[in-house]
Design a protein that fits this description.
It is built from 2 helices and no strands. The protein is mainly α. It has one domain. Keywords: Coiled coil.
Length: 136
Amino acid sequence: SANHALRAIGPILSVPPRVEKTDPLHDLAQIHFAGLSATFRAQQERASMRAKMKADEAQIVQLEGKVLGANNRAEDATSKANEALESLGLLQSRLAADVEAAKEQVRNEERTALREELEVSFSERLRKAREEFQKE
């Protein structure tokens, strides 16, 4: 019956259910009004959900932008690090060449010092040999 239907949707409308008998047409009008109210609330709920979804989408776009920015900064940092490593590699090669040149210079200086020492020693022996020869 209409009263039974009103009792079922009464809490939705916040309207106390009717206990006394009323006009069935009036009950139908109230049921129709309850349906319209429920439809209106559902539309408001959908609009609210759409607005929340749009806000969420905007936040997602903003976060994607931040992620892209972070990725770009990371790529820049990686590129700079690779350049630094490449530069270090060049420096290391130059340093190795400098070390080899220094070693060669030290070997040359040692040879020259040894040659001079041998010449002095040879000259000294030659002088002594002349002295010995002149004594005889």
